[in-house]
Amino acid sequence: MNAKYLFLIFLNLSLLNFSISAQILVKIGIRNDLKNIKIKISEGDYALTNGNDSIILKKNDTIILENNYNKLSARTGIKNIKGDSILLISTSTNGIFSTIINNKLIEYEDNAIFYPKNNTSINFINQLDIDKYVASVILSETYPNLPYEFYKAKSIVVRTYTTYMINIEKKHINDKYDLCCTTHCQLYKGKCNNQTIISACKETKGMILVDNDNLPILAVYHSNSGGLTNSSENYWGKSLPYLITIKDEYSTKSKNSTWTYTISKDQWLSYLAKHGIDSTNKNFENATNFYQPIRKKYFIDTLTLRKIREDFNLKSTYFNIQDEGDKVIFKGRGYGHGVGLSQEGAIEMAKEGKNFNEILEFYYPNTKISYFNL
Ligand SMILES: [Zn+2]
Fold it and tell me: How many distinct structural domains can be found in the chain?
């Protein structure tokens, strides 16, 4: 079983390795509903190909792609190419191209792959080196000027999550790419220009977190644990030895450590009644005075805290409820699902002088660092 998974991982990683150097490339879905797309080469040399025919492109050359009933056409100033798929391949080490997405000019690195979608739309995929991708995700999901050891820890987490998604979970296997560019997978906004983050990724090159079977872990993360991380069992109903509840003092001092939410008691009681919790329920007396000293899965009976969080758009599932006459007040801690690494806690650890190893050991117990690309 383990050997089979490992074989699959290495097979998969080696299949991705087709570029000019020994890179691991990842395919990120950018948009699949574009009616046309205009690309401009910003840096380096490129080849545009449909598999048979190709055109060499240089800096400042442009391409306009359209889908005519599932046949793609690419117009350049030199000649036109048609095909079932069209690839834009960087033939120099640092190829960069730009395009406008959502009215914003965005630069992308390395390659692009285009497929026709639904007769008239285009599926645009950016295929790039995993470390360039990891750097961009870190900048897209955090901020500049955070501690260096935090960026190193975060780069291993993002790389591990990416490897897990590609080789184990395969969420987007039917979409022709590995991960999408939204928070559904990881936020990705194109080229990262932050040199500190780029060098943190280089220093941790190839490092991923693995479990006792040497498989990449599900390296989930969130904004703030509120002082106690959540278990994967509590949130997703799946128990994992490295996603367990941990007391986390590092997450008690930052901006998302606490929150409150107030609603009328009538609204709260009618919501509970809809879920079978009314005065006939044996636990009803706790319905407006709920105490959660350690993170729980259920509010009362089968109603999960996660369901309440989603229905009321609460910041977390880690809350108490206080009866205040005609109102109930949710007094909450943390932001996000609370499972795995707390980003604000990890930043605090780095500020207090902890290194990336200590941060990862703290938030992902029972794991170790391994390498997938030496
Ligand atoms: Zn996704």
Answer: 3
Round to whole Å and give the CA distance between 144 and 193. Answer: 10
In a domain, 362, yes or no: yes
Q: How many CA atoms, within 13 angstroms, populate the side-chain half-sphere of residue 83?
A: 18
Check residues 196 and 10 and name the one with the higher pLDDT. 196
Residue 229 domain-assigned?
no
175 C-alpha vs ligand 1 centroid, how far in Å?
Answer: 10
Could you tell me the distance, in angstroms and rounded to a whole number, from the CA of residue 103 to the centre of ligand 1?
A: 22
250: DSSP letter: G
Between the CA of 76 and the centroid of ligand 1 the distance, in Å, is: 32
pTM assigned to the model = 0.88
- Regarding whether 345 and 197 lie in a shared domain, the answer is yes
Q: Give per-residue pLDDT as tens, 236-251.
A: 999 999 999 999 999 9
Short-list 159, 198, 195, 209, CA closest to 179:
159
Question: Same structural domain for residues 212 and 146?
Answer: yes
Asked if residue 100 and residue 50 are part of one domain, the reply reads yes
CA of 165 to the centre of ligand 1 (A): 9
Contacts within 8 Å (CB) and 24+ apart, 198-203:
198/135, 200/135, 200/138, 200/148, 200/151, 200/152, 200/154, 200/155, 201/131, 201/134, 201/135, 201/138, 201/151, 201/155, 201/159, 202/131, 203/152
The rounded Å distance from CA 163 to ligand 1 centre is 14
Chain centre distance of CA 155? 12
User: Has residue 112 been placed in a domain?
Assistant: yes
Q: Residue 66 Cα, ligand 1 centroid: separation in angstroms?
A: 25
